[in-house]
Amino acid sequence: MSSYKLIDGKKISQDIEKEIAEEVKLLKKDKMKVPHLAAILVGNDPASHIYVENKVKACHRVGFDSTLFKFSETMTEAKLLKEIERMNQDPDIDGFIVQLPLPDQISEERVIETITPEKDVDGFTNQNYGRIISPQPGLLPATPFGIMELLKRYKIKTTGKHAVVVGHSRTVGAPLGMLLSHEGNATVTQCHVHTHNLESFTKQADILCVAVGKPGLITGNMVKEGVVVIDVGTTRVKDPSKKSGFRLAGDVLFDEVAPKCSFITPVPGGVGPMTIASLLLNTLKACKQRNE
Using an 8 Å Cβ cutoff, are 69 and 99 in contact? Predict the structure, then answer.
């Protein structure tokens, strides 16, 4: 039975924020442009409000400029696309995000593809996605970027390892598989919720990354001893013992799986904080590239 080590995403994200803050101080000292991150929020989804507020707070902590644009639930797609074009042209904005999900009348794909790739700090546009395995990658998808950073900072070897990714979403699973293979030199097996006999694949994993949004999908009998587990799942489940009435649950049944791990991310406090840290790193990169 392994003695596991928790991968503390909260601490690593704080370390990254300190590093960025030091860099921003130097930019200010040299009278260079300070990075400016803007966010567009459409509608009244409570979770989206919390996510965006956390991103704005993170900007303040590292010394970035930030602007939040709020629009009503009834906003038309045409008006939103016009706002995005305005931000594409605004020389002061280095990067911006459009918080998802969007109301039904707006096409997420059309919105994402209207964002200029140089300002796409979420790393969602087709151009940035396609450049993941390029010799000169663009702005990487924030969550996979954060996961790779966690593996590096915990000195977890990926070269030659068998990485199994459960989940093939455009935002996490698919790009993470590409990064693990290309940048991490791992042998990657890509699975998802429709994979037959999932356990036969997860049991082979040296590194198991799960990004499905199905609480408790991975149980103790589905992993081998010494595995590294990265749990991206964050699903709100009812919990009467909590003041809020709910808690965040990962895709991995932690109490069963952790004793078999060498490293494992908790939920919350694992991958989540790294997504915002990656967003800040992308904004800093976008600012530097635009002002070289």
Answer: no
Measured distance CA(248)–CA(268) in Å, rounded:
7
pLDDT tens across 138-166, in order?
A: 999 999 999 999 999 999 999 999 999 99
pTM of the full predicted structure? Answer: 0.94
Q: Alpha-carbon torsion 43, 169, 279, 53, what sign?
A: positive
Which two structure tokens, joined as six digits, stand for 247?
Answer: 């808690």
pLDDT at 1 over 70: no
Distance of CA 130 to the CA centre of its chain: 17
Which pLDDT score is estimated for 74? 96
Query: Is position 104 annotated as part of the catalytic site?
Result: no
Report the DSSP beta bridge partners of residue 69.
40
Among candidate residues 8, 55, 119, 260, the one labeled active-site is: 55
pLDDT at 47 over 80: yes
pLDDT band at 3 (very low <50, low <70, confident <90, very high): confident
| Residue found under tokens 């590239």 | 289
pLDDT reading at 184 higher than 70: yes
Active-site entry in 94, 99, 120, 260: 99
- For 237, the enclosing helix (H) or strand (E) is strand 235-238
Interatomic CA distance for residues 58 and 22, integer angstroms: 14
Which pLDDT score is estimated for 107?
97
Q: Rounded mean pLDDT of the chain?
A: 95
The CATH H-level superfamily of 30-117 is Leucine Dehydrogenase, chain A, domain 1 (3.40.50.10860)
Q: Which residue in the list 122, 206, 231, 251 is annotated as catalytic?
A: 122
Residue 55 known to be catalytic: yes
Q: Top-level CATH class of 142-272?
A: alpha beta
Domain range summary for the chain, segments of one domain joined by +: 30-117, 142-272
Interacting residues of 138 by C-beta distance below 8 A, sequence separation 6+: 117, 118, 120, 123, 127, 128, 131
Q: Is 99 in the active site? A: yes
Tell me whether the CATH fold assigned to 30-117 matches the one assigned to 142-272.
Answer: yes
